[in-house]
Design goal:
With 97 residues, the chain is mainly α. It is 30% helix and 6% strand. The protein has a domain of 58 residues.
Length: 97
């Protein structure tokens, strides 16, 4: 089994996280899987669409970090995951993975 390494890239909105992740993937090729924290926004289904539009999605409590950590651990064990799909037009998590 390969040694699996997880690299976290942090920064504010528009700070270049995706650009750096893409450069890492470009360098290492198919040996890299990129997981974006945006996939793990909580679904605020109890709020109306108008209320969801007003949420601060940069706030740490906007993310389902427990699920993200659980899935990163699974990937490190070479397990498949059903990662969340988030709709940026509806401001909520979709049922499919």
């Amino acid at each position: 089994m390969k040694n699996v390494v997880a690299i976290g890239i942090a920064g504010g909105t528009g700070s270049g996280k995706t650009t750096l992740a893409n450069k890492i993937k470009e360098y290492f090729g198919n040996d890299v899987v990129s997981i974006c924290q945006d996939y793990y926004y909580k679904s605020f289904d109890t709020l109306s669409y108008e209320e969801r539009k007003l949420l601060n999605f940069d706030h740490p409590k906007s993310f389902d970090n427990s699920l993200m950590i659980e899935q990163i651990k699974a990937l490190k064990q070479s397990q498949k995951i059903g990662r969340p799909v988030y709709s940026f037009t509806e401001y909520k998590r979709l049922p499919e993975t």
